[in-house]
Amino acid sequence: MGEIILQMKEIDKSFPGVHALDHVSLEVKRGEVHALMGENGAGKSTLMKVLTGIYKKDEGTIVYKGKEVEFRNTREAQDNGVVIVHQELNMVGDLTVAQNIFIGREPRKGFRIDDKKMIEDSKALFDRLHIDIDPTEKMSELTVGKQQMCEIAKAISHNAELIIFDEPSAALTEKEIEDLFTIIRDLRSQNLGIIYISHRMDEIKVITDRVTVMRDGGYVGTLITEECTKEDIINMMVGRVIYEKPKEKSLVPADAPVVLKVEHLNAGKMVQDVSFELRKGEILGFSGLMGAGRTETARAIFGADPKQSGDIYVNGKKVEINSPQDAVNHGIGYLSEDRRRFGIVVGKSITENSTMAALSDYMSGLFINKSKEKQVSEKYIKELDTKTPSTDQLVVNLSGGNQQKVVIAKWLVRNSDILIFDEPTRGIDVGAKNEIYKLMNRLAAEGKSIIMISSEMTEILRMSDRIIVMCEGRKTGEINIEEATQELIMDKATRQMEA
Q: Could you tell me the fold of the domain covering 4-238?
């Protein structure tokens, strides 16, 4: 690690009713990958928005490359080599890779765009990053991983000296994450400063040199990564110890009735002859690599995607589920992995979202009974410990973990007995994860039955009573939690590909 490229000292920022940053400090060196960690709402994004000119700080100083600065907007920050690679990709699908990289600043020959130079410059960027991507290919035809690489190339094209990676691996496969880390290490070797924001604890230990932790808008401390444990970081983030021990035995009684039975389900290439049973009070984990068909299986069961064949039984009775409404009527709730797209309406209040799936129960004639609606919303805010000033708060203003609780409340208001949790903790911090885990265990203890799809092995081993493993659209294993290991699950998750 070399000289200090960035110092943010005693940064303070308030919004009406919220002290978002309370005299926070951050130091980043050249040739360093510096993790910025904290629970949702800790102030990480706000701090980065102050750095890049989206927000104006109230107090404090920013020293970049030895000079005090205050960027007025992101364009000014980019022109000075400070660039963010966002979690949500900001690419235009119908444009080519080269057009996306240089959009708004295309090289010109006279009054015309110089397409040849733009393609050559894009190729040079990819060569620097050791990436094999055709600059003339349409962005929409690339995988998410390759689109992420294009975002990085775009950042480098601004002559970046300080790059902020905001949850860069959230939607990537294991192989794509390896490729991402190779690029980040190469950038580090080129003496760039790198800020890496992630909730994935294992990544932090692999890719970063130092870790700065924030909590409740304040600075907690900075650690050297190789000298600290995962538990040290978690304890600093949440102010309490969180244990992540695997479940040692199933909590489901041997005589628990089967509440959901799926036989020979087929739904396109990604769901082929899938059969399994779910028992009352059980958390049934679904594991497998990206593209294994887990989400597609859940969507076919829920009626979100059409099934071609197969039978579904709820409480011993064969049912026809041809739409999500059919599934809801049979007591099945589905928490999508993309909660902002399929789970909640971010522009509406907590109350409106909570009663959405059971609105007919809150109608008085042609009108909604607002008092009754608010009463049930308040009940689940209290039960789920949702952090919000009121039931009228817009969901868009909640943290990721609290948004997830609103989705759960929606299905509890509907009184769904079978809940499908698809990546229930994706994009939320370790403290909020722990709350979701406690909630799921409580629901199971109360007799709800849960299918949990997760890409995190530690989550599967911590939460599941039994594990279904899938590979390339097929069920390749069923493991009792007493016998489950990461190695056994991975063996079954790759079995079909090797066959």
A: Rossmann fold (3.40.50)
